[in-house]
Amino acid sequence: MAKTVEDFNKRRLRSSNITVVISIALVLFLLGLMGLILINAQKYSDYIKEQLVVNAYFDENYDVKDSVKIAKLEEETFKKIQTLTPVKRATYISREMAAEEARKSMGIESSALFEENIFPSSVEVALKPEYVDPAKIDEAIKQIKSTKGITDVKNNSTLMVEVYNNLNNILKWILGFSVLFLILAVVLINNSIRLKIFSKRFIIKTMQLVGAKRRFILKPFIKEAIILGVIGAVLGLAVLFGAWYYFITQIGTPFAQDNNQLIILVVCIFFGGILITVLSTIFATWRFLRSNVDDLYYS
Fold this sequence. Notes:
This protein is of the alpha+beta class. The chain is about 70% helix and about 10% strand. It has eight helices and four strands, in the order αβαβαβαβαααα. The chain has a four-stranded antiparallel β-sheet. Helix 1 (about 1-50) crosses helix 7 (about 215-250), helix 1 (about 1-50) runs antiparallel to helix 8 (about 260-290) and helix 7 packs antiparallel against helix 8 (about 260-290). This is Cell division protein FtsX.
């Protein structure tokens, strides 16, 4: 009979541990998924912002005899623009390239309809994502325009501001959902641990009544919480990256990823899961250590 009761208790304990591990893994999986979405959303937001270019034009009126001098000036100006703080990348467009682009945009294959050098040379500038900010873009354009050799700078500031604001609003919503998932993760893991500790409340109180110190009682529970947290975190991360890899291979589009940010995400999920599990265990155990024997029947 004793063996049967002991086996029953072992099975119940094993079932309880499996339930806690699955709960931790599932919650951390969802939390990690939101983290991956947030990282990639930030990267694609920056990528889209970098596609909003500013065009800096050189003087289109020059004497043919000064062409060598003008070419040297444009080269120096182009190099100077590349070194400006707001500039992410710059592309030089010669008069010949500008004319070729014009012909393509108008669907003209022959160059006989207009002179080859009718368009001025220019520099196509992609700003760093933070300088697409409406509060900074004017300063960035001012720096480009003040560069020697540049006569005019054109950009669709209205479009830039609209795209910037829309992307930031999307990121704020994703960040808000991430914070919500973090709160849900803490609550769900805490509830799972509380149910597990609740089933051992009489054992906890018995140990305390026979003279065991609180630290002595807490120690095995904390060790078990660390083990369960590690297993749950590893399982959650394995499922997370397995599902993410499958998703990427199915859609055939590699997502923008930053290895440093991925490492930070993994570390946060791993240690965060362990920390939440341990703290929940301490709080749940401490509750029963502070309670009276009669309270155990009504907790």
